[in-house]
């Protein structure tokens, strides 16, 4: 019995403190104000592990692509045309389910949306394993703010640490 307890304690010590924390909670806290006016049933984001981000946001989203619904050029054109889609989360390491589009889509995001990854990581106090783009941010037609404007990387106001995006959306 003692050997079993010692073995279990040893195994538990091997796990790092943050075993699987890619940053969905902090991403949700950052983008929730941008999605507050979107009805919960309307798709408003695309990203990896979409149900996890849906839980944190209490909003509907979809994957970039899955074995059942692969990412295609036609799907990219639909996404580009759908202005209700405001948040785009990309898994650059391609390890999360449904988390990455093709390089043409990433190039479109880099030119047509505002990347807020660095601001979220700074706010969280740790690097993210995701890239986050937002579209439709006040400032210009493309969603980008004027060059040199400090609000280009500023996060929307969030609730105090520990408050969930789900609680704020009610």
Word description of this protein:
There is one protein chain. By secondary structure, the chain is an alpha/beta fold. It has one domain. It has helices at residues 2-14, 24-35, 50-57, 73-81, 103-112, 117-124, 165-168, and strands spanning 43-46, 60-62, 87-90, 114-115, 131-134. A five-stranded mixed beta sheet has the order 2-1-3-5-4, sandwiched between helices. Strand 1, helix 3 and strand 2 form a beta-alpha-beta unit. The longest helix has 13 residues, at 2-14. The chain is elongated. Mean pLDDT is 77; it is low at 139-154 and 156-170.
Structural class: alpha/beta
The amount of beta strand, in percent, is 5-15%
Mean pLDDT: 77
Q: How much helix is in the residues? A: 25-40%
- How many beta strands in the DSSP annotation? 5
Roughly how many Å apart are the termini?
A: 49 Å
Shape: elongated
Largest sheet: 5 strands, mixed
Number of domains: 1
The SSE string, one letter per element, is: HHEHEHEHEHEH
List low-confidence stretches: 139-154, 156-170
How much is the radius of gyration in Å? Answer: 18 Å
Count of DSSP H/I helices:
7
Strand order of the largest sheet: 2-1-3-5-4
Core attributes:
alpha/beta, five-stranded mixed β-sheet, elongated, disordered C terminus, single chain, 38% helix
Q: Summary?
A:
It is built from 7 helices and 5 strands; from the N terminus they run H-H-E-H-E-H-E-H-E-H-E-H. With 170 residues, it is α/β, with parallel strands linked by helices.
């Amino acid at each position: 019995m003692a050997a079993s307890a010692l073995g279990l304690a040893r195994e538990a010590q091997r796990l790092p403190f943050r075993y699987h924390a890619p940053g969905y909670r902090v991403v949700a806290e950052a983008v929730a104000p941008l999605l507050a006016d979107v009805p919960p049933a309307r798709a408003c984001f695309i990203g990896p592990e979409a149900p996890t981000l849906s839980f944190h946001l209490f909003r509907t989203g979809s994957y970039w692509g899955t074995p059942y619904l692969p990412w295609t050029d036609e799907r990219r054109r639909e996404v580009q045309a759908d202005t209700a889609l405001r948040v785009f989360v990309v898994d650059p390491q391609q390890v999360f389910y449904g988390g990455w589009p093709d390089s043409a889509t990433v190039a479109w995001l880099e030119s047509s949306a505002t990347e807020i990854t660095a601001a979220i990581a700074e706010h969280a106090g740790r690097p993210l394993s995701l890239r986050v783009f937002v579209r439709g941010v006040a400032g210009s037609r493309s969603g980008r703010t004027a060059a040199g404007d400090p609000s280009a990387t500023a996060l929307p106001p969030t609730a105090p640490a520990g408050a969930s995006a789900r609680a704020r959306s009610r």
